[in-house]
Amino acid sequence: MTVDLHLHTTASDGSFTPSEVVNKAVQLGLDVIAITDHDTVGGIPEAKAEAFDKDLEVISGIELNTELFDLEIHILGYYIDDNNLALQNELKKLRTARYDRIEKMIKKLGDRGIEIDFDYVCQLAGDNNLSRVHLAQAIVERGYVYQISEAFDEYIGKGCSSYVSRYKLTPRRAIELIKAAGGIPVLAHPALLERDELISEFITDGLVGIEVYHSEHSQSDVRHYKHLAQKYDLVITGGSDCHGAYKDNVLLGSVEVPDKVVRDLKQNQREGGSGLACSSLNQNFNYL
């Protein structure tokens, strides 16, 4: 079984539509994928419909952007009920905050002589979550820069003159929402966070798993976070964090994730999201 449990689509900040993700996964011979868009479940219905007659399981997931101590912390959720009312209400608030943020960023860009039309950026987003990627696309199309990465580096990336922060959940609230939706909350790419001392606090808040396998985790990171998963009795997950063509390489299916990860996730879901002993994962699996 080959799996990739961390994928983004055009529903958030990916460049592939949900249907394209499914078809590319099938072409690559993947057996299980999870759609984990940022702060939205909008891509899940299309992905599941596209996979209906294919030999591919699509797990309903999400990646909630949160903040604590001025740190951006991402919490993944697996096997969520994407129609859960509490989750939907919170996502609506986040969506509104995204629109407010982009309007403020466009005003700041205008102060620098970068004229971008808000309605046009919304048109680029369509029915999907409005994000800085869509603003960056507009900046490119208006000829101010040549690439999306330049727009982030010069204008709208964190620390740049036109950057605006936005409303975010706390990790505790994200964990609560995922569990209320019947899902399994997992800390995303912990090596990028570099704050292992916070993991025990997240566990107290209800964290159930940790993303051990990731495209930006070294082999040393994998060994380290496998050890922490075993220490804290956390479910292990993994995925490429593919955003399509917006990053230098299309990462879909590029991270080797043991198929036992999916079996343990399913067992955890059946047991009500209480966590799993991870000692059985201490085997000679290949790393990244």
TrEMBL record:
Domain (Polymerase/histidinol phosphatase N-terminal) ranges? 3-68
Where would one find coiled-coil regions in this protein?
Answer: none
GO molecular function term, any single one: 5'-3' RNA exonuclease activity
* Domain of life, per lineage: Bacteria
What SMART domains would the database entry show? POLIIIAc (SM00481)
Extract the CDD domains matched here.
Answer: PHP_HisPPase_AMP
Q: Name one Pfam family in it.
A: PHP
Task: Spell out the protein name for this chain.
Answer: PHP domain protein
According to its UniProt entry, this protein's organism is: Acetohalobium arabaticum (strain ATCC 49924 / DSM 5501 / Z-7288)
